[in-house]
Write a structure and sequence with these properties.
Elements: H1 2-23, H2 33-46, H3 60-73, H4 80-93, H5 103-112, H6 120-123, H7 141-146, H8 151-163, H9 169-187, H10 196-217, H11 228-240, H12 248-254, H13 265-274, H14 287-297, H15 302-317, H16 324-328, H17 333-349
Bound molecules: ADP-ribosyl-L-arginine and magnesium ion (3 copies).
Amino acid sequence: ESVLLKSKFRGSLLGAVIGDCTGAPFEGDTITSGDKIVIQRYFDKLEDPEFKAPFKPYTDDTAMTKSVVKFLTDKPEPDYKFLARLFVNEYMKEPRRGYGAAIGEVFNKMRLSKFDDVFKPATEQFQGKGSYGNGGAMRVAPIALYYHDNYDAMLGVATKATKLTHTNTFAIHGALLQCIAVREALLADPKKKLDPEEFVASLQEKMKKIENANVDRDLESSSPEDRAYQDKLKIVEDLIGKSYEDLDEEVIFQLGNGISAYESVPTAIHCFLRAQNDIARIETGNQFRRTIQYAISLGGDTDTIASMAGAIAGAYLGEEAVNSELIRHCEFTQEMTEVADNLLSAKGEFPK
Ligand code: F2R
Ligand code: MG
Ligand code: MG
Ligand code: MG
């Protein structure tokens, strides 16, 4: 059992970093059918043992995920000031890792206020509306792994870890959805064929609770975010039944491929589910690669959607599903394997 968990922890964090590294060169692109052939060859090369090239660098997605792991492993209890400092140190050390355009402001305010109230700067983003970017979701996988056996704690920690930078409900609920998806994948038996309908139904039920709880807090208001992710998951569910070849335009139109959590987290979950079966023009027998390659082929926020889809796929399939050549071509993958092991052993060391 712990052998399987070890493989799944490694698989998930490798999925996060490999999706980021391989997706980053395409971030912001619109992908044509010609580009899809280019992406097919790109992955063929990355899996070729003879292929020599400098590794693909990671971006902010992995930089922040690393900090979240350290936050979980280095302190006995969640310490959000510590996490804020880790984010800021990483950002100051390497500001050119492709961070969101607005998040630097949060980090500067944290630093200038000497980390006095680490939750305040994020509340001031976008005229007080808070960021709805996918930055909370893209770094949440370690929390799902660490707290997989304590669901309520998982949601609580994921919420606060997101709120350090993102206070908009769309960003928080998106991060929770991604967190829940990674956990469900971790708990699923990789030897059994996954039932996509069951997987989505479970996410729908959980998001319903989360979105309804939000309504209860403020009975006066009924805003679009009250059902936002339930509605998106309904689309994910409807897409499962559609098996025709040219689904991509519809996926991009209905689910999105943007940098907001709302337009990327459900898309990542769709990628994971669709890759359970063959996908036209993605030639590989490897489900892990298929997930990431498909996510990238949708264009838009490719590094982040591939990273989130990769974290889910890796949590389901485990490390064995990840091609070792693909690992070799991405930055920080060796370290990420050790980091995954530390995360698993930290679970045993500290009382919850
Ligand atoms: N930043 C990018 N990619 C674009 C450029 C990088 C590229 N490599 C290059 O240099 O060419 N990618 C990274 O950002 C995303 C995560 O962003 P995060 O952490 O959520 O940051 P932020 O700044 O808070 O939000 C992102 C943008 O979303 C818009 N936005 C958010 N909330 C808004 C609101 N309430 N109102 C209006 N706009 C809002 C803003 O444009 C934000 O800057 C990932 O893709 C990661 O890979
Ligand atoms: Mg990025
Ligand atoms: Mg069924
Ligand atoms: Mg991105």
